[in-house]
Amino acid sequence: MTAITxxxxxxxxxxxxxxxxxxxxxxxxxxxxxCYCQRFKTAGWHWDLSDDERRDRLxxxxxxDDPDSPETxxxxxxLEDEPVGWVAVDPRTAYPRLRGLRTVWSGRQxxxxxxxxxxxxxxxxxxxxxxxxxxxxxxxxxxxYARERGALALEAYAMITEPGKEIxxxxxxVGSVQVFEEAGFTAVSRPSKRRVVMRLDLGGSG
Length: 206
Known about the structure:
The protein is α+β, with helices and mostly antiparallel strands and 206 residues long. It has a single domain, classed as Aminopeptidase (3-Layer(aba) Sandwich). The chain is built from 6 helices and 7 strands; from the N terminus they run E-H-H-H-E-E-H-E-H-E-H-E-E. The chain has helices at 19-26, 31-35, 51-62, 102-105, 134-148, 177-182; strands at 9-13, 74-79, 82-91, 117-125, 153-159, 186-189, 195-201. The longest helix is centred in the C-terminal third of the chain and has 15 residues, at 134-148. It is globular, with a radius of gyration of 16 Å.
């Protein structure tokens, strides 16, 4: 499969996309089309919600079809006119479930209510376009997006991928360490065998 470069993509805030385009990225048959990016947005167990509730929450959070909205919860990537990818990026405080996760806070003393720290929590690439580099382009796009909205730091909770060990699509929705390293993030803690907290400080960088 031919790699897709960032220059080939148009990446926009999700409120500038249509709900039809958002749904096309998530699909209906595998993990993204069931979770609808609610794992960290839900204070409790997101699978306790119905499929319709998770889908409706994403639609409300993205404010899609409303280009004048001051709020959204992620970015949508287009290849020509086709919607092909999604990344969730929001202030860290917009993710209630992050507050109680050991794999986020272990070994760190931080203000969990600090709105200036943003987080990248989920990638989805449309079927037929996966493993072509779109995730790398989306990760890079979150940096300017968060900086332009006043973020002083950007975090991610990446997975370590090991040669020869299979990782399911659902597990890798948070992104791999390599994806964030290429976007300029560095590791700040390793709270578990396979998880790495990645961070990029944005304050004063223009």
